[in-house]
Design a protein that fits this description.
Residues 5-63 form the DUF7479 domain. The chain is built from one helix and three strands; from the N terminus they run E-E-E-H. It is an alpha+beta fold. The structure holds zinc ion.
Length: 63
């Protein structure tokens, strides 16, 4: 993921990477997402969310 090309449209600030804890199906995982230092909006690209959740679903089905 290219860091630095994403700008918060509301604040016009460059988004910075931040560790976010996700909870999905009772599992916790930490993932780095871009967030706005001004309004704390977390920018999660849809393809990353879908890819991540798809991976978790596959991992759970294997067990
Ligand atoms: Zn902002």
């Amino acid at each position: 993921m290219a860091i630095g090309k994403f700008i918060c449209h509301k604040c016009d600030k460059k988004l910075e990477p931040e560790n976010i804890v996700l909870e999905y199906l009772g599992r916790r995982m930490t993932h780095q997402f871009l967030s706005c230092p001004e309004c704390k909006l977390i920018y999660i690209p849809e393809e990353i969310v879908e890819g991540k959740i798809h991976q978790v679903e596959i991992a759970l089905e294997d067990k």
